[in-house]
From TrEMBL:
<dbReference type="InterPro" id="IPR000262">
    <property type="entry name" value="FMN-dep_DH"/>
</dbReference>
<dbReference type="GO" id="GO:0016491">
    <property type="term" value="F:oxidoreductase activity"/>
</dbReference>
<feature type="domain" description="FMN hydroxy acid dehydrogenase">
    <location>
        <begin position="1"/>
        <end position="69"/>
    </location>
</feature>
<keyword id="KW-0285">Flavoprotein</keyword>
<dbReference type="Pfam" id="PF01070">
    <property type="entry name" value="FMN_dh"/>
</dbReference>
<dbReference type="InterPro" id="IPR037396">
    <property type="entry name" value="FMN_HAD"/>
</dbReference>
<protein>
    <submittedName>
        <fullName>Alpha-hydroxy-acid oxidizing protein</fullName>
    </submittedName>
</protein>
<keyword id="KW-0288">FMN</keyword>
<dbReference type="InterPro" id="IPR013785">
    <property type="entry name" value="Aldolase_TIM"/>
</dbReference>
<keyword id="KW-0560">Oxidoreductase</keyword>
């Protein structure tokens, strides 16, 4: 099952491009900053949301749990 989750379809072109794009991003931590008042809000399609969290549909849930669809 790990290979299914970790891998990609066919020749994994999309997986390779996504991995390459992710590797081009620098995740730089902010150290020694005042974190007493953090605002994670943003605007999406003109709507203010408190935290940028999105859920997307998936399939084949039964691979992960016996009660899946």
């Amino acid at each position: 099952m790990f290979n299914y989750i970790d891998g990609g379809a066919d020749d994994e072109v999309t997986l390779k491009r996504n991995t390459s794009a992710f590797n081009d991003c620098d995740l730089v931590p902010s150290v020694l900053r005042d974190v007493s008042s953090i605002d994670m809000s943003t605007t999406v399609f003109g709507q203010k949301i408190d935290m940028p969290l999105f859920l997307a549909p998936t399939a084949m849930h039964r691979l992960y749990h016996h009660d899946g669809e």
